[in-house]
Design brief:
By secondary structure, this protein is of the alpha+beta class. The chain starts with 19 loop residues before the first helix and ends with a helix.
Length: about 725
Amino acid sequence: MSKAARDPNTPIGPDPTRGPAERARELRRLIAYHSNRYHQLDDPEIPDADYDLLVDELRAIEESHPELVVEESPTQTVGAPASTLFAQAPHRVPMMSLDKVVSLDDLLAWGARTKRLLDLDDEQAEQLRLVCEPKIDGLSISITYDHGRFVRAATRGDGRVGEDVTDNVRTIKDVPLELALDESELPADLEVRGEVYLPIVAFQELNARQQAAEDRLFANPRNAAAGSLRQRDPKVTAGRALSIFTYQVVSGDSAPAGAGQASSGAAAVRLETDAAIGHQSASLDLLRRAGFPVNPKTRTVTGLDAVFAYCKELEAERHALGYEIDGIVVKIDDLSLHRRLGATSHAPRWAVAYKFPPEERTTLLEAIMVSIGRTGRATPFAKLTPVLVGGSTVSLASLHNQDQVALKDVRPGDTVVVRKAGDVIPEVVGPVLSERPKGLEPWHFPTACPSCRGALVRLEGEADTYCVNLGCPGQQIQRIAHFASRGAMDIEGLGEQRVRQLIDAGLISDAADIFSLTVEQLSGLEGYAEISARNLVAAIDASRSRPLPNLLVAMGIRHVGGTVAQELSSVFGDLDGIMSASEEGLAAIPGVGGTIASSVVGHFGTKRNRAFVERLREAQVSFGTQKVSDLPQVLTGKAVVVTGTLEGYSREGAEEAVTGRGGKSPGSVSAKTMALVIGSNPGASKLSKAEQLGIPILDEEGFGRLLETGELP
């Protein structure tokens, strides 16, 4: 269906004014349109989760009104018809889709249906062995071997007929051209199914090349993988660093051994060597021996409680994997049960996909607003109709800067795609152009500061715009809130709202003023009882003795973060030494350099900042001297990067454990990094970089041994 064939004002969500028949017809048109953009053009407009909602709504209508079901309905088909770019490749065994669940209750309901269909008692159901495999967000592929030699590869297509992409798949290094099996195991005819994907690092590098060439950027790794695999020129595919995970064995005249992430079922696969494979786990072992990549996170467990625990475990790790997954595929291990369970028109009953909360959704962009930061930087952000994405409700999202708003061309009133991955700040990916109301005007960056109405100025050669009024209330609030934040002076109870309240009450005008606050002053404010007032004054008093690196970070010196602050503190020992240092002397310090040195000298060279420092001195804030650690200096000269949440350390505590032993704890991985320590929810980019460079990766136990000995465990 062409884009022009749709009414651009048709909403994605349910429309209560339409009757079931009319809404079903509209849903089929919408699904066909978005399916074409996803499967044929590799250029989707809406996230998978929103597409699934359309299909779910149509399925619900058809279940309530069976007379509305038509043969060509998307609920009755799998995937999309093969394109005309490649020769058609019929599948001897259909490649089906999977039913999905999104909660423990859904998973238990699937288990209850399975138990009923197999006539199992409670004990048998609890002892059922299940194979859990990461659900790779890629492109399903079928690969055929003749006497152990690669002969054909095909995409899923509509589940019955795919596209012949043999020459392109041949270029994927992970696909063996000859099976590494003994002659006794080698079948005359073998079909293997898997998922072609693009690693996140490769996706980032590809988009960087696309941008440099002023070519179209790919929306996500899945679409980049699909676009890369479906190239007319195999040389283009070869340059895209595609990978594959395999998960299924199919014999020449039998049905698949185990659910692929989309396929039908069989009792067992009998290879032409007369060796029968009776379990999904055994088929995965065969794939490994044959030389195929099988996902190392695959696990065989007993019972649905163990399945759910595995799902939650992998959900927490998903951003550290180096490739994108959107859930878990759960399969009954015993293949003899597959035929007994059978399949529906589109999915096997013996497998199910546990889907993670979607990290991309569409919602309405109600307004574009501008916030003013502590440095005066004016940052546009989106006010959204609240939407559940990434496991939490999002109503605000970043738009980064003026150029990004113009590049994405998002406008108030647009339906937009919002992305939130893990703990990353939500961002607006772009508009759904087919949903844009007619006559919607482009958004223009304001020329006046929304806080003080002073001029907003874009500095030459920079992407950011600034309010240059140092007395701007917006900057004032952010500077004080930053001073009190956890990575700086760590004053509990002094967040942005409290700072605003204290400024409005005329009690403070900058961060130095907070050290003069009294219990009596605070007790008179709304929301402060005597206990809360005493707690805040005590927290402020405790902050006077924070280490020098915290004070340097709190001052908000441009380019000076935690790592640089630690370096400066280690070399000079106190704030006076840093303030009196020359630009050349600062630049010579490892990890500092000319840009940071110039920023430090410039900061302390202004009368305003010097006066602020003296007021801190009068308030008896500690300026150093830096204490020499009495810990064994086993990490001297070594760099250890920490990412994620460790049970035994705060983020700052882990870094101090490294620096206290003479090491460095930079914020990024490089070739000089000794080791990367990962906790829960680690940064995907750091982990991918470490894997790419061959940097050792340690868990918390390994980190403890490293701190004791200075050697890698």
